[in-house]
Amino acid sequence: MARYIGAIDQGTTSTRFMVFDQSSHVVACAQKEHKQIYPQPGWVEHDTEEIWRNTREVIAEAMGQRGLTAADLAAIGITNQRETTVVWNRKTGAPAANALVWQDTRVADYVAEFARSGGQDRFRPKTGLPLSTYFSSLKIRWLLDHVPGIKRQAAAGDLLFGTMDTYLAWNLTGGPRGGVHVTDVTNASRTQLMNLHTLSWDEELLDAFGIPRPMLPRICSSSEVYGIATEGGVNGVPIAGILGDQQAALVGQTCFNPGEAKNTYGTGCFLLMNTGDRPVQSTHGLITTLAYKLGTEPAKYALEGSIAITGALVQWLRDNLGLIHTSPEIESLARSVEDNGGVYFVPAFSGLYAPYWDEHARGVIVGLTRYANKGHLARAVLEATAFQTREVVDAMEKDSGIALDILRADGGMVENDLLMQFQADILNRTVVRPSMSETTSLGAAYAAGLAVGFFRDTDELRAKWSVGQSWNPRLEEPEREGMYLLWKKAVSRSFDWAE
To answer: From first to last of its 499 residues, what are the pLDDT tens digits of the chain?
Structure first.
């Protein structure tokens, strides 16, 4: 009998394979980074063939750690960086171009063009999303317009589109030899092509963006058997769960009740609140999205605040400025000073996402004096994550009418105690980290396990969740609000920088 569940976590900077047991404990894990490709300022690409190679390698490495075979796995779930856009040949599997990453801003001119006839929110009633460089629709349009010969191939039905979940599921289940071309409702809701209410591709949206219908995958639930693996060293294992990475973390945090929310601190920061059976349209700069759909149960919706640059700012400090050698070093550098020294860093490298949606904003560092040193800059980098999160929490409470009592936190940055304490301070709320912090992979494992009966139901999953550590606010009100006021002032300096 299969004793474990596998989860592929295909993220923005790396791919990981984790194996969980019935108690949700990790029994094996392997991870490998892939290249970040920056052909021009604002352009961000990935080599999808490198990612597929890395996926096979991390599966083999993790399975080898415990001497596991495919027969030991009841199913595999996939979670992925969302919006990142892949177009490939259905006959050969070859990509038509590098993947356009969610952070890529090359479609800014298209955003302005579409907004001129209908405004930035012209598609929001159907999709829950504003016009933005963030989502997949305009990235597909750009590829069709700019890659030689691609439009003709698409019209002939030779090309497939997918986000990374679709690309990996297709390759795992055979690729050109019968691979299934599927996505789930959470990833489909990030394309700006799916109708939130019907959970299907919308012909009016496809016409508006000029995207041929045959390119698109079949939309499925987040928890069902999509196909059986024939590649990747896991032959015979059902591929049975797909969730976009932030929705996977919501499931992994067992936020199954309306009003429950989590924030994932990764490359970006993504705060999602479960709003139940109905989509809640935002009037405060958030987006409406699918939370999950488990098998034949009704779909659940969420409000989301998306922040483009958080952990990526730490990487920038490491790779571009060389102020630290490894990302964890930022905490000790930030602790070398008592406060930020009046320095504020707004990381609008790809414009500003929630709650501003300003494509033309750019990063700024303000408040510099001769007193400022690298410790103050490191502290400002960490504090930027917490300030941006507070802006999203404020907007979410206004949209939902629900006051958050605690914030469930996960992702790589939650190991930074200084950041988590400052997050509690600036929010004036308790922040909790679960005992199992790898909630994204866990959510994919939960979705796959539910589909094949490895886990019974969501009540069983909820019983597995427990607090690992919590941080309580201890900053006085005048200091907290004074710092937040200066942050808002700094943000205003980043607006409309790029023409």
So the answer is: 679 999 999 999 899 999 999 999 999 999 999 999 999 988 999 999 999 999 999 999 999 999 999 999 999 999 999 999 999 999 999 999 999 999 898 998 899 889 888 888 889 999 999 898 989 999 999 999 999 988 888 888 899 999 999 999 999 999 999 999 999 999 999 999 999 999 999 999 999 999 999 999 999 999 999 999 999 889 999 999 999 999 999 999 999 988 888 998 888 888 999 989 989 888 888 989 999 999 999 999 999 988 888 888 898 989 898 999 988 899 999 999 999 999 999 999 878 888 888 888 999 999 999 999 999 999 999 999 999 999 999 998 888 888 888 899 988 888 899 999 999 999 999 999 988 878 999 999 999 999 999 999 999 999 988 888 999 999 999 999 999 999 999 999 999 887 7
3-state secondary structure 232-283: CCCCCCEEEEEEEHHHHHHHHCCCCCCCCEEEEECCCEEEEEEEECCCCCCC
Supply φ then ψ for residue 229, to 5 degrees: -65, 135
- What distances in angstroms separate CA 450 from CA 181, 285, 294, 456, one per listed residue? 21, 34, 8, 6
Which helix (H) or strand (E) is 50 found in, with range?
Answer: helix 48-65
**Nearest 5°: CA angle at 295, between 292 and 301?**
20
| DSSP-based three-state secondary structure for 98 | coil
Which positions ≥6 away from 495 have C-beta within 8 Å?
A: 352, 356, 358, 360, 361
Nearest alpha-carbon partner for 279 in 74, 128, 477, 64: 128
Give the CA distances from residue 127 to residues 124, 196, 401, in Å, rounded to whole numbers and listed in that order.
5, 5, 22
CA distance 222 to 182: 11
CA distances from 411 to 19, 92, 101, 279, 302 (A): 18, 36, 20, 26, 19
- Give the burial class of 350: count Cβ atoms within 10 A of its Cβ; 0-12 exposed, 13-18 middle, 19 or more buried: buried
Are 442 and 436 in contact by the 8 Å Cβ rule? The answer is: yes
The β-bridge partners of 243 are: 79
- Amino acid letter, residue 261: A
